[in-house]
Amino acid sequence: MKKDKNLRHAIILSAFKQFSAQPYHKVSTNQIVDDAGVSKGLLFHYFKDKKTLYITLYDLAWKTIFKDVFEQLDLSQKCLFRRFRDYIILKSRCLQNHKTLSLFIKQVHLNQDADILKERSTRYLNYQEVAYRKIFENIDTGLFRPDLNLQDTYKIFVWTLQRVTNEWEKQHTNQSVEHSLPVLERELEYYIQFFEKAFYL
Amino acid sequence: MKKDKNLRHAIILSAFKQFSAQPYHKVSTNQIVDDAGVSKGLLFHYFKDKKTLYITLYDLAWKTIFKDVFEQLDLSQKCLFRRFRDYIILKSRCLQNHKTLSLFIKQVHLNQDADILKERSTRYLNYQEVAYRKIFENIDTGLFRPDLNLQDTYKIFVWTLQRVTNEWEKQHTNQSVEHSLPVLERELEYYIQFFEKAFYL
Amino acid sequence: MKKDKNLRHAIILSAFKQFSAQPYHKVSTNQIVDDAGVSKGLLFHYFKDKKTLYITLYDLAWKTIFKDVFEQLDLSQKCLFRRFRDYIILKSRCLQNHKTLSLFIKQVHLNQDADILKERSTRYLNYQEVAYRKIFENIDTGLFRPDLNLQDTYKIFVWTLQRVTNEWEKQHTNQSVEHSLPVLERELEYYIQFFEKAFYL
Amino acid sequence: MKKDKNLRHAIILSAFKQFSAQPYHKVSTNQIVDDAGVSKGLLFHYFKDKKTLYITLYDLAWKTIFKDVFEQLDLSQKCLFRRFRDYIILKSRCLQNHKTLSLFIKQVHLNQDADILKERSTRYLNYQEVAYRKIFENIDTGLFRPDLNLQDTYKIFVWTLQRVTNEWEKQHTNQSVEHSLPVLERELEYYIQFFEKAFYL
DNA sequence: CATGAATGAGAATTCATTCAT
DNA sequence: TATGAATGAATTCTCATTCAT
After folding, report:
1. Chain segment A150-167, per-residue pLDDT in tens
2. CATH: 1.10.357, 1.10.10, 1.25.10, 1.10.405. Which one for D50-199?
3. Rounded distance in angstroms from the CA atom of residue B121 to the C1' atom of nucleotide F3
4. What is d(CA A97, CA A91) in angstroms, rounded to the nearest whole number?
5. Is D174 on the interface with C (CB under 8 A)?
6. What's the pTM?
């Protein structure tokens, strides 16, 4: 079904396909290897067990997304508000362009299995930390009102934009990028102007 | 372990216990009958199959809750705002008093299995419709501004209060009724006064 | 292959057959159920897992042997020397008559698997204790020299006869009862007379 | 992990380690190559299959032991009794110094697998024969009583000393060479003097 | 020599469901 | 009603061995 080279990749592709459409336990390793056109043993040659495969996929998903996002993110933008807005827009577009990754991540986050829960949490937090460190790097802090605590300002700003994005996601899950992204951009812009008024000198 | 009478009930109790703690596929029929202290066959005597049992429980859960709520709901209250507020409070209190039912419903709503998804959706919509029909019965519409479309007014009001309740639920999942319910009551009251100003003559 | 009734017994018989001829890990549950003519699931309906089946068989083997032996053992015999000799003879005859049980027990005792080792040890010690308690019940101690510690006397006697039996077993494993048992009887008798001279008044 | 040179040796060392600690079937070829730090294929390049590796190790074990023993054995000693005693002492010391080899040989002798049983038996008998031929070479037969059949005399002597050594082995498995070997030496000496009285002129 | 990808039969175990009693 | 024996397909995972590079 797939090209001969790199059957490991064939397994990964097949697994992404299956796991993004069904919850963990509904996908059998048989399904995956059959669909990938490889032997039963090969899956366990490359991945210790089903769980490891699942977690590896999760890692891969975020790596793909973050690579995509941070290759495009303009770090010469020194305004935190704009830079964070750009980050959200890029990430949202990326998720909408990679439907499979996006659905897969949703499935992982619905999973309640203790082991998987634990693994994905630590990984998720780690990826977030790395991303946020980059976003807050070399920010022009000169514009901020000196009478406000900078960390608090950051927090409130980030939380607000995240919330706005969450709400937008819920409403635009199945819509095309062209139609829905501008909506998000406008909403984010609205709040950014609000924050500029509130937090800038 | 349970009384001889009504082994069907023993099965239901045990099933509620298991299904509220674990997702559908993680609970085996063996677990249920063992815990209920009945034979394997009896489960399938009373319930066509595992899925039917699950859906039956879901029905039962909502029936219990709605019976509880509407027995207490004061339908002589002709103000929609107050009546809906009362409904929300009663329902929230009921869910907090029946932790098992509450957790079970959450589990059902996380389930992605096609058949179960379909069945629970139709049932959920049906229960909601019945409830809302009662709530909107014999409302004093004389107080509303005649220049506003009544259906729109209703919608916005209901949506707002539902949203407020959702947020409250997220934050007070594990807290006791005595502590958290007054918080909800106050929040709801705040928005009701807002709507009275906006929508009443 | 077997009669319809009591498929559990069919499994046990088949398992005894297989496990007495091959070590634990070489016998697959497939072999057992195929030979027993039952479905795969039935084995796990009756026995939690392969290990439990194995241990159950071990229990069964000793129960069978001890029942056989103690039904025939003459407890009116008050002379410890004779009674213990009778016990050894009966047990040895029993083991030679039940080749399968005998071989099975040997296989179990060769097994090095941690779990099985532990289980069989506790069970073995327990069976031994029960047996020895019966053997030492109501013994006429009046014949023994009062200047010798009775427990020491017992110990030395038992150890000696056990050792003699072990040596005989090694040499007569594959021989018929008629030929080999008299050899053992004679050897035991020889030592008993030795002990009578040494330990009796 | 190991030096580059002679990866075959690395496999052998690792295999000895694994096979001396666990029975044949419990050791996987993966374990061996992982521990040896070599590739899967190399094991099957050097050894036809797992069984061949096992038998090769068995050969190697005895070769090592016999080389060690016969390099030290004083063949100028013309007294059979002393020479055989020396042989036993040297072999026992050697086995105690090479715990891994010793444990490995025990494991092999516990193995019941038909093929392995057959191979190890022929090899074991062969090694014994070679050893005994050397031991009985150039013995001064002039000291023996001419009225006794020499072969019978040899047999009884060898069997006795072997038996004494077996019993000693059972009791001193886990003890140090310094403590336990002198015990064996004394016991052997005792029987040798007995045989001198009985079999010499 | 050396690698490690690839195979596929076979292992133990699970589980919803049926059915004779 | 009530039991629990019986089924058998499906699941995850193991492992010796082969082979192209």
Report:
1. 989 999 999 999 999 999
2. 1.10.357
3. 36
4. 10
5. no
6. 0.89
